[in-house]
Amino acid sequence: MRTPSETRLSELFIGIAGLIGAGKSTLATALGEHLGLPVYYEPVADNEYLADFYRDTARYSFATQIYLLNRRFAQHQEIIWRGGGGVQDRTIYEDAVFAKMLSESGLMDARDYRTYLQLFRHMSNFMCRPNVIIYLDVKPERSMERVRSRNREVESGLTLEYLTALHAEYERFIGEISRTIPVIRVDWDSFRDVQEMAQVIEREYLTGNFLREVQWSPARG
To answer: What residues contact residue 121 under an 8 Å CB cut-off, 6+ apart?
Structure first.
């Protein structure tokens, strides 16, 4: 028979947030295995807009963001309606971070951005919030290193300046989202053991039910 804690963990809806190349998929996989939860990965390999977006960002920014919003919303709703919890590799809330960056950098038309925000807000009225968001806080320089090491052709145009601006926007986003959804903030630069991280996240969630943000340091051997 499962304990109350085990039952609760088996029904968690966990969102993984973080910069490009932060290691979201790796942690999502580890958490899924550790907690026995299905994992919903970010649509990258089958994203039919991605190559065009990186080739001509201004032209395809709106279409790409709408595509991603639609896919992420479908994932989000599947986790809710199928029941039993799940781990989502990048949350739907982060899509608005990227859209804002595109708008502020002049790569998305102001009219398109307003339309995007209106659609996002209408969708959010139908969304149940995750139980917790795990934020992988990685510095832009480290993010750039990881992007280069995985050597995806579509990401070859990413710059450190873009990642630095994105990191600043993420900090604002986490500050805002933590008012309504508990956030566990992970210093991913100093911690790479995903199995231990999964155990710590489990412990922090169970003991910090009403904490909006949790910071911790990894065990040192």
So the answer is: none
CATH no., domain 4-215: 3.40.50.300
pLDDT tens digits, 67-104: 999 999 999 989 888 888 899 998 999 989 999 999 99
More confident residue, 136 or 146: 136
Q: Which residues contact 80 (CB under 8 A, 6 or more apart)?
A: 13, 127, 128
Strands of 70-216 (E only): list them: 86-89, 132-137, 183-187, 213-215
Q: Phi then psi for 51, rounded to 5 degrees?
A: -60, -45
Q: What would the two tokens of residue 29 be? A: 């996989």
In contact, 157 and 107? CB cutoff 8 Å: no
| DSSP secondary structure string for all residues of 122-143 | HHHTT-PPPSEEEEEE--HHHH
Instruction: Kindly list the strands in the beta sheet with 132-137, ordered across the sheet, starting from the edge strand earlier in the chain.
Output: 39-40, 86-89, 13-18, 132-137, 183-187, 213-215
Q: Please give the positions annotated as active site.
A: 89
3-state DSSP helix/strand/coil % of the chain, to nearest 5? 55, 10, 30
Domain ranges of the chain: 4-215
Kindly tell me the burial class for residue 8, based on how many C-beta atoms sit within 10 Å of its own C-beta (0-12, 13-18, 19 or more). Answer: middle
DSSP conformation class of 10 = T
Strand partners, 17: 135
Show Cβ contacts of residue 100 under 8 Å, excluding neighbours closer than 6 positions. Answer: 113, 169
